[in-house]
C-alpha cells in the first residue's frame, strides 16, 4: 500500500472503494479496488477470486491487471484506470439522444472480443452489465468487475454461489437452472439493447412483472432506423432457450451481424482472428489421433504430384524462380478419395458442440439433464414465478434489481484460505463452438432454496 499515492476516490461499491492511485515510481495512474475481506468464508473467497481471474485475462478489451495484495483485512486489486467511466454513466450522459449506429457497433464488437477471450478461457463473467463495462479516454471498451466470474472445474465450494443483477439475468437463472455461457450472451444482449435505445429491455414496475417479461423474452422492438442485422441479433440473444442463443464465437464469425461487426473491429484483431479461425476450423473437425491417421495416410498415398491447373501460363511465366518451384511442388487431390480415406473418415469422431456431453466425456446424467432442460425451455414460460421467491424478493425494492446479488451456500466443511482456481485443460481443447450451450457451471447450486433458508432463519 505504501508504494502508491492515493489521488482520489473514484467511487464506492458494496464491498469497498475504488481509488485512483499512482505508484511512487511511475506516472501512470491506476485504479486500486479496496475490498473489505468478509469474515464469512464464502465472501472472502469470492473477493480473492476476482483478483485471480482478472490476472488471467490479457486482452485489449478487458481491464488490465497490475497486481493484488492483502493488508489489514483488505484485499487490494490494482488495475487499469478507465478514464472514460462506465457505460451506464455514458448512456445517461446522452440525455435521451440516441447513439450513432457506428458507435454502437464499434463498442459492441469490442465487447464481443472481450467476452470471447473470457469464454475461450472457459470462464463465465456472470455479471455483464453496462455498469461493469468501461471506456478509456480513447473510447475503447474494457470489460471489468470479475467479482462474480467463475471458472469451470473450480473447487466445489467456490461454485456454490448465485450471482447476478436481476435486470440482466436470463430466464434459465430464474428457472433455477445452471449458469452457462449463453447466460452471459443474454446479459450482453441487454447491454446492446441499452446502447441502441438508452433504455433497459425489460423495464417493469414489480418483481413479478420483471421476471415474467424476462422469462417470456418480451421486449419493445429496437427503433426501426437501426439495421435489420441488429434487430435479428437482439431477437436471437433474447431467445428464452439458451441453446437457441448464439455463442460469442457465432456472433463474431457466422451470424448475420458478423459482417457488420467486422467493419468495426480493429484491423489487427481482424487478421489475427481470421487466421486463428481458419486454423481452428481445420483443427476442430477431427480428434487428434484420427487427424494424425488421416495426415499420415494422405502424406503417403492419396496426393498426386502435379502442377495446379488454376495457374495460367502467363502468370506462371512472370513468376519468380522460387514461386515456380513452389507451384510445381504443389499437390492436388486425386479425383475420388480412395476407400481407405473414406474408411478413416467414417471412423473419425466429429466433435460438435451439438454433442457436448459426448465430446467432453461427461456422464449420462449430465446429458439427461441437458435434454430435460431443453424440454422445459422449449415451452413458453406460462407459469407464474414461484410464490415463495416473489415473497422473498418483494422485501427488496425493485430499484435494487440493478445491483449485483450474491448468495453463498453456507458450507462449514470448506476451510477458508487463498483460492486456487483450476482450469480443466480438456475443456480448452479447440472444438466447434456452434449454436449450443457449450459450458455451464460444474456444480449447480440451488440459490432459491438457500434464499429460503436465509429467510426462514430471519423470521
Ligand atoms: N478500472 C476502473 N476504471 C475507472 N473506474 C472504475 C474502475 N473500476 C471501478 N470503477 C468505478 O469505481 C466505482 C466503484 O466500483 P466497484 O467495482 O468497486 O463497485 P460497483 O461496481 O459500483 O459496485 P459493486 O461492487 O457493488 O458491484 C464505480 O463507479 C466504477 O465505475
Automatic annotation (TrEMBL):
Residues 410-431 have a biased composition (Basic and acidic residues). Belongs to the protein kinase superfamily. NEK Ser/Thr protein kinase family. NIMA subfamily. ATP binds at residue 33. Pfam families: Pkinase. Keywords: ATP-binding, Kinase, Magnesium, Metal-binding, Nucleotide-binding, Serine/threonine-protein kinase, Transferase. The keyword Transferase applies. It catalyses: L-seryl-[protein] + ATP = O-phospho-L-seryl-[protein] + ADP + H(+); L-threonyl-[protein] + ATP = O-phospho-L-threonyl-[protein] + ADP + H(+). It comes from the Eukaryota. Residues 410-439 are annotated as: Disordered. This is non-specific serine/threonine protein kinase. The keyword Iron does not apply. InterPro entries: Kinase-like_dom_sf (IPR011009), Prot_kinase_dom (IPR000719), Protein_kinase_ATP_BS (IPR017441), Ser-Thr/Tyr_kinase_cat_dom (IPR001245), Ser/Thr_kinase_AS (IPR008271). GO terms for molecular function: ATP binding; metal ion binding; protein serine/threonine kinase activity. Residues 4-265 form the Protein kinase domain. Its cofactor is Mg(2+). It comes from Hemibagrus guttatus. Its EC number is 2.7.11.1.
